[in-house]
Amino acid sequence: MFDYNEKPELNITPLVDVMLVLLAILMVTAPVLEYEENINLPTGSRSQTAMQTQKLDILIDKNRVVKVEKNSYNIKEFADSFVMLTQDRNKDIYIYIKADKTLQYEDIIYVLKTVKEAGFSKVSLITDG
User: Fold this and answer.
1) What DSSP line would sit under 77-91, residue for residue?
2) Assigned domain for 115 exists
3) Fewest CB atoms within 10 Å of the CB: 46, 60, 103, 112?
4) Contacts by 36-42, CB closer than 8 A, 24 or more apart
């Protein structure tokens, strides 16, 4: 029969086994779940002087007129004109986009997307301060 005076034993072996399996799964999947944004960080040294790099400035004023070098384009005509203007250029130059703060976000992203689709990868949005 059942002895009421006997104290039950606590068997934690299955619990430890399950926890070790879960720990192993976590250790294997944790590096895979890591999100990584690829960015090009500048390298610098105090002993080297800054080199003069090629750059292209794009200015967008509050009237939605895009100025590239000495040329001015309406924002609707910018995509085709920019591709034609830069088709023979080095795609490794720096592009700086300066836009008026009263512009809609959509207009700035349109210009940024156009520059990226033209093959330029080093594009920066310039802000004040």
Assistant:
1) THHHHHHHHHTTS-T
2) yes
3) 46
4) 40/122
CATH of residue 74's domain is 3.30.420.270
- State which residues form the domain around 94: 55-126
Token readout for 11 is 């068997």
Domain total of the chain: 1
DSSP code at position 126: E
Q: Which residue has tokens 């034993």? A: 9
pLDDT in tens, 9-54: 888 898 999 999 999 998 888 776 655 556 555 565 555 555 667 8
Amino acid letter, 101: K
Q: Which of 120, 77, 125, 121 is nearest to 98 (CA)?
A: 125
Answer yes or no: is 86 within a domain.
yes
How far apart (Å, rounded) are the C-alpha atoms in residues 129 and 121?
Answer: 24
Report helix, strand or coil for 75: coil
What's the CA gap between 110 and 8, in Å, rounded?
Answer: 71
Assigned domain for 98 exists: yes
Which pLDDT score is estimated for 1? 64
Tell me 51's DSSP state: P
